[in-house]
Design brief:
Oligomer: single chain
Number of domains: 3
Number of strands: 11
Number of helices: 9
Distance between the termini: 77 Å
Strand content: 15-25%
Largest sheet: 6 strands, mixed
């Protein structure tokens, strides 16, 4: 693969590094601190130095690019691979490098971009592109749905990848449509779409294999080669790992609670997955109830579809600490020792109850 695509490999590597040149040309116009990570809401929640933002992402992508190419080239079944599938490997990361750098520089130069919508649209287009190429792949250990049932039968492989290609195209188009929906709806649907795209084609391959066994077109008693045994073991381990990661991420994203404990001289905010915070009543300088959410950008902490915890920043309060539920109906803003704390209950009624209790403690 490397020898026959040497020219394209060189060109694609240069394209990956082009954002470095663009960053150097824009050096004087870029701020000293550049946003390099965005949360689910599309707001920036992570920053890096200018030099870090310009040099590290393209270099990391170049290393990833070469790793993918070398792994694909070392595949023992690579010789029969479709040329279009090889091009997909060669040109996916260059596209990602240009796209991500364009967004990074655009936001740094204060262009008004909806990061969530743009990301959904571009990722959806990329999955649609990949879906068109999946049916063209031949049996291999690096590209496609590398389940044992597909690798054991060329008929199963072709059927699985024709079906999987359709699933990827449909999933990609669905992600593009999510770009036009409110952020609250998009994240949950994104998780569902990605799970469908990842697991439904593998389920289809297994069902197809069972159909082949019933028809007698495959022999389940045929001993596996060393390559097939190794790939089967790797696949099983990968599936277990991915399933565990999805379960953990899903648990963190959609679970958790905040409890308020009132003591004689202080109260404590005790949140799931985060350190508790204790504030003395005598240290509270101001206390105010805010209907609706207090918008802010997370600079450090935990953000999920259930909780928002840690350090945040906005124009009104600057840097402040937050212990709230995601997009709360109401918030309490208090100042203690010159520091601002934003808290909330599960809903407006619970938040008002906390406010009344704190007010009573302060007046008492």
């Amino acid at each position: 693969m490397i020898k026959e695509n040497k020219k394209q490999l060189i060109i694609s590597s240069i394209i990956i590094l082009l954002p470095i040149l663009a960053g150097l040309l824009l050096w004087d116009r870029l701020p000293d601190t550049v946003a390099t990570h965005w949360g689910f809401s599309g707001e920036a929640d992570g920053w890096s130095s200018k030099s870090f933002a310009i040099f590290l992402p393209p270099v990391f992508m170049l290393i990833t690019h070469w790793f993918c190419v070398l792994v694909t080239a070392s595949d023992p079944r690579n010789k029969k691979r479709n040329r279009k599938a090889q091009k997909m490997v060669l040109w996916t990361i260059p596209f990602v490098s240009l796209f991500s750098s364009a967004l990074l520089y655009g936001t740094a130069l204060e262009a008004k971009l909806n990061m969530t919508s743009i990301t959904f649209a571009v990722v959806g287009i990329m999955f649609t592109f990949i879906g068109n190429y999946l049916p063209k792949t031949t049996q291999n250990f690096t590209i496609g749905f590398k389940v044992p049932w597909a690798l054991a039968s060329e008929e199963n492989w072709n059927a699985t990848h024709r079906f999987g290609g359709k699933v990827y195209v449909a999933g990609g188009l669905a992600l593009v449509l999510l770009a036009f929906l409110p952020t609250k709806l998009t994240i949950g649907w994104m998780v569902i779409i990605l799970l469908v795209m990842g697991f439904v084609p593998m389920l289809y391959s297994w069902l197809y294999y069972k159909k082949q066994l019933k028809a007698g077109t495959v022999d389940s008693s045929k001993p596996q080669s060393k390559e097939e045994k190794l790939n089967s073991a790797i696949l099983k381990g990968t599936l277990i790992f991915v399933a565990a990661v999805f379960l953990l991420v899903g648990f963190l994203l959609f679970s958790g609670h905040i409890d308020v404990t009132y003591g004689s001289d202080s109260f404590t905010m005790d949140a799931s997955f985060w350190n508790p915070l204790t504030v003395k009543y005598d240290d509270i300088e101001s206390l105010e109830y805010f209907p609706g959410n207090v918008e802010g950008t997370r600079t450090w902490g935990l953000g999920s579809f259930r909780l928002l915890l840690g350090t945040f920043k906005n124009a009104e309060f600057g840097y402040h600490t937050r212990y709230t539920y995601y997009d709360p109906e109401a918030c309490i803003v208090l100042t203690a020792k010159g520091k601002t704390l934003v808290i909330s209950g599960r809903d407006a009624a619970e938040t008002m109850s906390i406010f009344n209790e704190l007010t009573a403690r302060l007046e008492g």
